């Protein structure tokens, strides 16, 4: 058997080989197209990755929402170390957990209105599915329709996958019944769906800010939804799994609008401070009580009877949330926006052939890369391996070439979204300093200055040389 110590000695070639044999062969083929797929990280701290070969990489992925605090935040490490040193109880089960109690209290303190009742599973998809089940139970199983947006991303389990509009057309896994899409941001489309299923809609699920497409709902739309849901007694669920804890410039995106309160909000990602795999739904007290507040149903919903509310996971989340509040993460995101917004817009203006769109809020921006030779569309059609099924092949390839050049030439780690028009995501951790934001902007400017054709040629040449 290999030990943890042995992991430190595995070469990148050996890791690829083990992945090929025991994890996922095609993942290796895909990810070795990028510089970061061919290297290993020695340690990660703050906004930086330190590679085995000594290179220091600026991490601008923000861990795809998980790393608002950066890597290995000292306060988070400290809390976890103290937890271990004191031999605190990890697995509570039928004992009550002071950590679950305190975390529930803090969430209720921070969220508006009577959003007071928390459920704490492990992943975003579990929180979404828990929220949808809560809404179904609230109506006692008498309503059967749940509305979701056409461009939504809510997770990849069977239920959350059904409610993910973006997954349509790729591969149809079986799903939950009664899921009906509406057009994101279009109140008339929601009204029409509610009217078409009069008296049968138990929940409306929406991301107020869609992190995977970098689109967001207007205040008018969100308030209109609230009004409609109140009038029709529909449970309104805001999915803020990505956008919580300051990322877009307010604690949660919807909280920029005073008095706006959904019936349920979901969170995860930076809720765990970059260390703990924890998520939550937080429900309005009357909604939660009507659904589950009796002796028979008290334990009815528990997606995670195994891993629910573990001690160190919750202690970590308590610290992560306290850091976000004490260090004013929303304010930090707003200051990052003051640099990113004008910087990215200037870049878009200087590179009109390469940049199709720039949009975002706080420390979460998308740069949609345009252009690229149209012959790539034809290449995708005749290429093996299922690429023909991907109508976004050209956009993905040109954006991948930009991600690769940022990494190879400027030691900057970034990613692009697999949803919408596949924007390059600019979502740094909230601990990033102004000079690091400037460094990113200069690097992106220089990369785009090379032109898409040159970037693609280099990217393709590297891919080919990695095959031989
Ligand atoms: C808005 C949103 N909802 C749900 C999810 C699913 O979370 P998980 O991947 O933890 O299941 C994600 C993940 O990216 C997300 O961004």
UniProtKB/TrEMBL annotation:
The UniProt record lists the keyword Iron-sulfur: no
Cited CDD domains: OAT_like (cd00610)
Keyword Ion transport: no
Gene Ontology MF annotations: identical protein binding; pyridoxal phosphate binding; transaminase activity
Cofactor: pyridoxal 5'-phosphate
Transmembrane regions: none
SUPFAM superfamilies: PLP-dependent transferases
Keywords for the protein's UniProt record, in alphabetical order: Aminotransferase, Pyridoxal phosphate, Transferase
Highest taxon, organism lineage: Bacteria
Family assignment from sequence similarity: Belongs to the class-III pyridoxal-phosphate-dependent aminotransferase family.
Protein name (Swiss-Prot/TrEMBL): Aspartate aminotransferase family protein
């Amino acid at each position: 058997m290999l030990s943890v110590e042995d992991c430190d000695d595995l070469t990148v070639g050996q890791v690829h080989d083990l992945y090929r044999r025991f994890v996922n062969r095609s993942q290796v083929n895909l990810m070795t197209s990028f510089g970061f797929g061919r290297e290993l990280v020695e340690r990660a701290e703050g906004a930086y990755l330190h590679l085995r070969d000594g290179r220091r990489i600026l991490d601008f992925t923000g861990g795809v929402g998980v790393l608002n605090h950066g890597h290995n935040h000292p306060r988070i490490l400290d809390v976890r170390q103290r937890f271990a040193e004191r031999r605190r109880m990890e697995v509570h089960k039928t004992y009550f957990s002071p950590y679950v109690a305190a975390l529930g209290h803090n969430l209720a303190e921070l969220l508006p209105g009577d959003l007071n009742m928390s459920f704490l599973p492990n992943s975003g998809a579990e929180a979404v599915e828990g929220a949808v089940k809560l809404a179904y139970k609230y109506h006692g199983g008498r309503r059967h329709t749940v509305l979701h947006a056409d461009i939504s991303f809510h997770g990849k389990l069977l239920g959350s996958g059904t409610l993910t509009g973006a997954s349509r057309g790729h591969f149809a896994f079986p799903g939950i019944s009664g899921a009906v899409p509406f057009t994101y941001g279009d109140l008339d489309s929601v009204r029409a769906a509610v009217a078409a299923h009069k008296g049968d809609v138990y929940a409306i699920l929406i991301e107020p800010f869609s992190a995977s497409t970098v689109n967001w709902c207007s205040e008018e739309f969100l308030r209109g939804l609230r009004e409609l849901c109140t009038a029709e007694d529909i449970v309104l669920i805001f999915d803020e799994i990505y956008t919580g804890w300051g990322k877009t410039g307010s604690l949660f995106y919807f909280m920029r609008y005073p008095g706006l309160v959904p019936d349920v909000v979901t969170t995860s990602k930076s809720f765990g401070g970059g260390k703990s795999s924890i998520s939550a739904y937080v429900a309005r007290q009357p909604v939660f009580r009507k659904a589950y507040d009796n002796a028979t149903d008290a334990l009815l919903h528990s997606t995670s009877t195994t891993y629910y509310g573990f001690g160190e996971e919750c202690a970590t989340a308590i610290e992560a949330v306290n850091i976000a509040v004490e260090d004013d993460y929303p304010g930090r995101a707003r200051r990052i926006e003051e640099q990113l917004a004008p910087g990215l817009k200037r870049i878009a203006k200087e590179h009109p052939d390469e940049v199709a769109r720039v949009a975002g809020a706080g420390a979460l921006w998308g740069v949609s890369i345009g252009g690229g030779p149209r012959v790539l569309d034809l290449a995708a059609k005749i290429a093996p391996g299922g690429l023909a099924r991907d109508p976004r092949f050209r956009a993905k390839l040109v954006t991948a070439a930009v991600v690769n050049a940022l990494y190879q030439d400027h030691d900057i780690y970034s990613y692009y979204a697999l949803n919408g028009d596949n924007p390059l995501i600019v979502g740094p951790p909230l601990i990033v300093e102004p000079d690091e934001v400037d460094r990113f902007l200069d690097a992106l400017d220089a990369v785009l200055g090379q032109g898409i054709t040159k970037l693609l040629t280099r990217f393709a040449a590297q891919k080919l040389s990695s095959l031989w």
